[in-house]
Design brief:
142 residues, alpha+beta, Hypothetical upf0131 protein ytfp, five-stranded antiparallel beta sheet, 3 helices, GGCT-like_sf, Gamma-glutamylcyclotransferase, AIG2-like_dom
């Protein structure tokens, strides 16, 4: 995906970028104006090697946070998150694809956000043999 036309989008994070997780402070501390609980409809969450994958799944839901970057940090944060998620536009070796999806806020409103979903080949493998996190919440994985 190419950067979204128009104003910068928030990010929906559901794994190691959530508050209290390993990458939150490394990547988000000081670069955000807001972090709020949110849900990503029509997705399922799968356990990965130390981090999760979200996969399109009608009727499913993933829990996470909607993160709004500081305007002056947006471009560097987008670049840093693409690097963290090993996302390069159009690269068939990607682990994740950065896409826009409607995210549901706690107040019931929706907003478009960037989300890193499992790349198609990873998603197919997870659907076939992966371990689904039934709660849709990485923090409840046990």
């Amino acid at each position: 995906m190419t950067p979204h036309p128009g104003p910068p989008l928030p990010f929906f994070v559901y794994g190691t970028l959530r508050p209290g997780e390993a990458n939150h402070d490394l990547f988000l501390r000081g670069r955000t104006t807001a972090e709020e609980p949110a849900r990503l409809p029509d997705t399922a969450l799968y356990d990965g090697p130390g981090y999760p994958y979200a996969v399109d799944a009608p009727g499913g839901e993933v829990r996470g946070e909607l993160v709004t970057a500081r305007p002056e940090s947006y471009d560097t944060l987008l670049t840093a998150l693409d690097r963290l998620e090993e996302y390069i536009p159009g690269d068939p070796r990607n682990l994740y694809e950065r896409v826009t999806r409607p995210v549901l806020r706690a107040d019931g409103t929706t907003t478009p956000a960037w989300v890193y979903l499992a790349a198609p080949r990873i998603a197919a493998h997870l659907r076939a043999t992966g371990t689904r996190i039934e709660t849709g919440d990485w923090l409840s994985r046990g």
